[in-house]
Design brief:
olfactory receptor activity, 3-stranded mixed β-sheet, binds 2-acetamido-2-deoxy-beta-D-glucopyranose, Rhopdopsin 7-helix transmembrane proteins, single chain, globular, transmembrane, mainly alpha, glycoprotein
């Protein structure tokens, strides 16, 4: 099982004493025989994710009535989801086809960087999107004045920048540790927990610091999102008519489902102790938020949203090759 471990001069200052040059992703290696099945299923899911999100981007780009802040944010979100799942899925699919899929030390850092950056952007974009819903529902008269294009662009830019800064400290702390014992990552991608398990130095201080950073980084957008929704719900409850309540709620329900799915699945893996103790459960739940939720999001938005459905119908009608589909 063990690779020939070669000691290479450390070219990068932040990586002291590392005798390991590559990791092995064990993935679902214990599920012998199921590998091909998993490959087919997850390839299909990946294709659906790409198609769904590209479709949302196309609809928003070609539909004038969807040129509003809410849909600009949704477009950015779909664009993000494509990269978020792409940081994990292609490599994961490869692990299903090979017995031992190796990933180089730097490859592991790059994958982890992009995954955390994308998850970070996702947290911030979800917060921006819920703030947008908060303004639309709680401050409808001032909405257009506050949410102008400049503000939208600024909030979107802040989300992307904050997201890309998020992993920097975590990476420096993690990959400064020594890895000299096993190089087998019991996971389908280079995630923090499984990588930290392989460190052979005392990682306690680093783990605590990483935990604090990760909690702050996710807590800030999470609390912003929560605060928006507490305000939204209290406003909706004060609307006297049932119809008015339903109408107001329908403008934010898709987003609320997406937020709940994202934080729900993330919370199960990173906050619940049982999932982190059992590698199998950890891997299964990780599949949810790395591969499955990016597929569900465009479906939720297109099925639950009248404007998106209408835009889809129009696009099919206008599309030359889609003429035969129109009634
Ligand atoms: C992202 O958001 C900005 C600002 O609202 C918008 O101009 C841009 O078109 C969006 N990008 C995508 C891909 O939807």
């Amino acid at each position: 099982m063990y690779l020939i471990i070669v000691r290479v001069p450390n070219l990068i200052v932040m990586l002291p004493n590392n005798t390991i040059t590559q990791f092995i992703l064990l993935s679902f290696g214990d599920l012998h025989g199921l590998q091909t099945f998993l490959f087919v299923i997850f390839l299909a899911i990946y294709m659906i994710t790409l198609t769904g999100n590209v479709l949302i981007l196309t609809l928003i780009a070609f539909t004038q009535s969807l040129h509003t802040p809410m849909y600009f944010f949704l477009g950015n979100f779909s664009f993000l989801e494509i990269w978020y799942t792409t940081s994990i899925t292609p490599k994961m699919l490869k692990t299903f086809l090979t017995v031992q899929e190796a990933i180089s030390f730097s490859g592991c850092i790059v994958q982890f960087y992009f995954f955390v950056a994308m998850a970070g952007v996702e947290c911030y974009l979800l917060a921006v999107m819920s703030y947008d819903r908060y303004l639309a529902i709680c401050k409808p008269l001032r909405y257009t004045a506050i949410m102008n294009l400049k503000v939208c662009l600024r909030m979107v830019a802040c989300s992307w920048i904050s997201g890309f800064l998020t992993p920097v400290f975590i990476i420096v702390l993690t990959f400064r540790l020594s890895f000299c014992a096993s190089n087998e990552i019991d996971h389908f991608f280079c995630d923090l927990g499984p990588v930290l398990k392989l460190s052979c130095t005392d990682a306690h201080a680093a783990k605590t610091t990483i935990f604090v950073i990760a909690s702050v980084v996710t807590m800030v957008p999470f609390l912003m999102t929560l605060a928006s929704y507490v305000n939204i719900l209290s406003t909706i409850l004060r609307i006297p008519s049932t119809r008015g309540k339903q109408k107001a709620f329908s403008t934010c329900s898709s987003h609320l489902i997406v937020v709940t799915l994202f934080y729900g699945t993330l919370g199960i893996v990173y906050a619940a102790p049982t999932a982190s103790q059992s590698p199998v459960l950890n891997k299964l739940f990780s599949l949810l938020y790395t591969v499955v939720t990016p597929t569900i999001n465009p479906i939720i938005y297109s099925l639950r949203n009248k404007e998106v459905k209408e835009a889809l119908r129009n696009l099919i009608r206008k599309w030359p090759s889609g003429l035969s589909l129109s009634p």
